[in-house]
Amino acid sequence: MKWISLSRFSSKSVVFIFCCILVVPAYSQTVPLKLDGVSLKKVTLSEFLSQVQESSKFLNTKKLSVQSSLALQEAMGAANINPSLNISHGAFNESKASEYYSPRSNTFSLSFTVEAPGKRKARQDFASVEVSRAQLDFQVSEKAVRGDATFAFIDVLRLKLIWQALQNEKERLKLITDKDTATALQNNELFQKTTLNDFKYFSMGMNVFIGNSITELFEPVGSMDALPRNFNPLDYSETALARRNDIISLEAALRGAEASLNLTEKGRRIDLSPGVYYSRTAPYTQGTSVYQRGGTFGVSVSIPIPIANLYDGPLIAARNSVTQVELYLNDAKQRALIEVNQSLMQYTVAKTKLEEVREYRNKGLQNKSLATSNVVQQRANEIDFIDAQTNHLKALIIILRATGDYGLPNLN
Q1: Average pLDDT for residues 15-40, to the nearest whole number?
Q2: Nearest-CA neighbor of 238 among 120, 151, 330?
Q3: What single DSSP character describes residue 297?
Q4: What are phi and psi of 7, to 5 degrees?
Q5: What is each CA distance from 28 to 163, 170, 293, 323, in whole angstroms?
Q6: pTM of the predicted protein model
Q7: What tens digit of pLDDT does each residue of 353-379 get?
């Protein structure tokens, strides 16, 4: 509809239409999004992440790993004395085979283990490293899950904003009656139906982090208008990149491999098994001789022959494990620097695209024409803007994670 066609409307009608055009965008934001057979629960990003942290089965398994390592720490660091008490009672003779026979005696012996120097300390160090590694693994996993959950939230929020843009277009098209309006409304209906189906699909993906029923889905609430940031590649040295999850995990794995190597080396040392015994003989008579109760004391030392130390396989394997982790760590640090620069390039493109789309979207909003083509174009510009915001926000999170910053932009 062109401006000259307004001549067939009265001035009051024109004012009414303009008022409707201005009111509809605000109204469309309040139109509830509905899905057949599904209840929607509105949730902000902070609320969603809080529920994920409490309900994630994956994170709960990591918490159990921490508890298990803490429970084993004391036992692994305890002294390995292995006390053993042996009691021998006898012997008993059913009949005297001859004048000479063995008298009955009882023997009590106590033996224990004296560990080789360094063994217990090696176990304590290994147990301590395992506790630290389990705790660090939980923290790293928590950051990763929060990031993945945020991406799921953004995907669903994008579809909701697109649906609202389509709803806004529909309300505006209902006020226009030119020749293209009917076709535009049909396209809008089809687009909205597809968007609702996509919304349901991706909202189910949010439930993966919580474990809710597919009949109870989340409706994200918030905005994706994150402020652009500036990054300097020179600020991200290897020291700064030490905050990355992959590097932190590999450093923990290296400490674990070194502790395991130390445990293997100390485990080859020989333990001693000293013991004491007391033997008591009951009184007895042999021939014309009468013998009184007697007792003897003694000590013993058992020294094992370390045949297993002839084979260096366990030691070589432990050393190779340390070398492997060192190689992985060095590779991760080099790869991290490359990934940072790649992420910076990706973010720069996304930020530039956002500003370009914002400019032509705002320029298009200045056109107050009542033509169907203008309404459709403004809706298309709005969806382009939503997509540009989505790409910018994801690129921002990716560059932050690449540099070891796991903070999340405010989407509330």
Answers
A1: 57
A2: 330
A3: E
A4: -65, -20
A5: 10, 9, 106, 61
A6: 0.81
A7: 999 999 999 999 998 888 899 999 999
- Report the alpha-carbon angle 49-50-51, nearest 5: 90
Query: What is the rounded distance in angstroms from the CA atom of residue 201 to the CA atom of residue 186?
Result: 23
Residue 96's pLDDT is what?
A: 55
Residues with Cβ within 8 Å of 57's Cβ and at least 6 positions away in sequence, in order, are 211
Least confidently predicted of 25-29, 54-58, 165-169, 235-239: 25-29
DSSP category for residue 310? G
b/e per residue 383-406 (b: at least 16 CB within 10 A) = bbbbbbbbbbbbbbbbbbbbbbeb
Peptide bond into 91 cis (omega under 30): yes
Q: What pLDDT score does 350 carry? A: 97
In this prediction, residues 79-108 reach a mean pLDDT of 72
Q: In CATH, which superfamily holds the domain spanning 3-78+127-269+312-402?
A: Outer membrane efflux proteins (OEP) (1.20.1600.10)
Tokens of 315: 């030691």
Report d(CA 64, CA 31) in Å as an integer.
44
Structure-token pair, residue 297 = 């004391």
In degrees, to the nearest 5, what angle opens at C-alpha 268 toward C-alphas 267 and 269? 90
Mean pLDDT of all residues belonging to the chain: 86
DSSP secondary structure string for all residues of 324-393: HHHHHHHHHHHHHHHHHHHHHHHHHHHHHHHHHHHHHHHHHHT-----HHHHHHHHHHHHHHHHHHHHHH
pLDDT at 92 over 80: no
Measure the CA–CA gap between 325 and 332, rounded to whole angstroms: 10
Query: Is residue 184 classed exposed, middle or buried when 0-12, 13-18 and 19+ CB atoms within 10 A define those classes?
Result: buried
Domain coordinates in residue numbering, the chain: 3-78+127-269+312-402, 81-114+271-305
Length of the chain: 412
Number of helices and strands in the chain (H, E): 8, 8
- Predicted pLDDT at 312: 93
8-state DSSP, 92: -
Which pair of structure tokens corresponds to residue 146?
Answer: 């929060």
Q: Report the distance separating Cα 188 and Cα 365, nearest Å.
A: 19
Which pair of tokens denotes residue 162? 């697109």
* pLDDT band of 4, cuts 50, 70, 90: very low
